[in-house]
Amino acid sequence: MLKGQTAIVTGASRGIGRATALELARNGANVVVNYAGSAAKAEEVILEIKALGVDGIAIQADVANSEQVQAMVKQTIEAFGRVDILVNNAGITRDNLLMRMKEEEWDSVINTNLKGVFNCAKAVSRQMMKQRYGRIINVASVVGVLGNAGQANYVAAKAGVIGLTKTMARELANRNIHVNAVAPGFIETDMTDELGEETKSQLLNQIPLAALGKPENIAHAIRFLASSDADYMTGQTLHVDGGMVMP
Ligand code: NAD
């Protein structure tokens, strides 16, 4: 389905990013596994990608740093000659109530989760414009639509990602670059591990399908948006959340 294409997945050494990198590879894409922390975990994903019969490279870059992002895109083009798919997945949480939230907690989440999407999309868009082809998929969140007490920074960033998705979709449509978002509900990853069992069981009451999601559920939606099956879609936010948001 994605044979011969090149994908960059940010924050791909674990969780939703890792599942997405493997899903795109399973469908024939060569994948750049971006990571910020452990090279060892990113290299493990590369081994799994290569075992699927496609190519992959791990590139360290902090998505909040535009110079590092530009270097990552340059290295990708040197290695594969093109960039067809960008998945803006990297994200962090620094939860606190508004009155207690430190400026550093606000800035770090906005810089990674919102500015990071801007940095990566801007860096690939020149190449995608030249190719007259590109698929950008941004990972938002249900809380960007619903709001969530204790997450002002994260919610503002994710709501921003949804707005940015619509704007980029309008700006880039005439170059055949489609920009969509996936808004996950609560997915079982290291990020949600921090929630604790009691909070998790309370959450189940808010989910019509009464279960947390798995990283693969999000990866499947991203693979759909990256594929020609979604050729007539741009500017959309696909909710993959067990029915939490019914727009
Ligand atoms: P995770 O913490 O397991 O993975 C996030 C990845 O992003 C990690 O590999 C981390 O190293 C990387 N990362 C963090 N900062 C980075 C930076 N500055 N540069 C490059 N990489 C960086 O989390 P996850 O649950 O897999 O989340 C993936 C995405 O899905 C995030 O954008 C998150 O906000 C979003 N999301 C997750 C859930 C959930 O329930 N897990 C729900 C909604 C949205």
The CATH architecture designation is 3-Layer(aba) Sandwich
Low-confidence segments: none
CATH topology: Rossmann fold
What value does the Rg take, in angstroms? 17 Å
Instruction: Give the helix level as a range of percent.
Output: 40-55%
What does the largest sheet look like?
A: 7 strands, parallel
User: What's the end-to-end separation, in Å?
Assistant: 30 Å
Instruction: Give the ligands present.
Output: nicotinamide-adenine-dinucleotide
Class, according to the CATH hierarchy? Alpha Beta
Shape: globular
- One letter per element, helices H and strands E, the order comes to EHEHEHEHEHHEHHHE
pLDDT averaged over residues: 97
- Quaternary organisation: single chain
Total helical segments: 9
The overall number of domains is 1
Q: Could you name the CATH homologous superfamily?
A: NAD(P)-binding Rossmann-like Domain
Order of strands across the biggest sheet? Answer: 3-2-1-4-5-6-7
Catalytic activity: a (3R)-hydroxyacyl-[ACP] + NADP(+) = a 3-oxoacyl-[ACP] + NADPH + H(+)
GO molecular function, one term: NAD binding
Domain Ketoreductase: 5-185
Keywords: Fatty acid biosynthesis, Fatty acid metabolism, Lipid biosynthesis, Lipid metabolism, NADP, Oxidoreductase
Write up what this structure looks like.
The chain has 247 residues and is α/β, with parallel strands linked by helices. It has one domain: Rossmann fold, CATH 3.40.50.720. Helix content is 48%, strand content 15%. The chain has a seven-stranded parallel sheet with strand order 3-2-1-4-5-6-7, with helices on both faces. The protein is globular, with a radius of gyration of 17 Å. It binds nicotinamide-adenine-dinucleotide. Nicotinamide-adenine-dinucleotide (NAD) is lined by residues 10-11, 13-17, 34-37, 62-64, 89-92, 112, 116, 139, 141, 184, 186-187, 189-192.
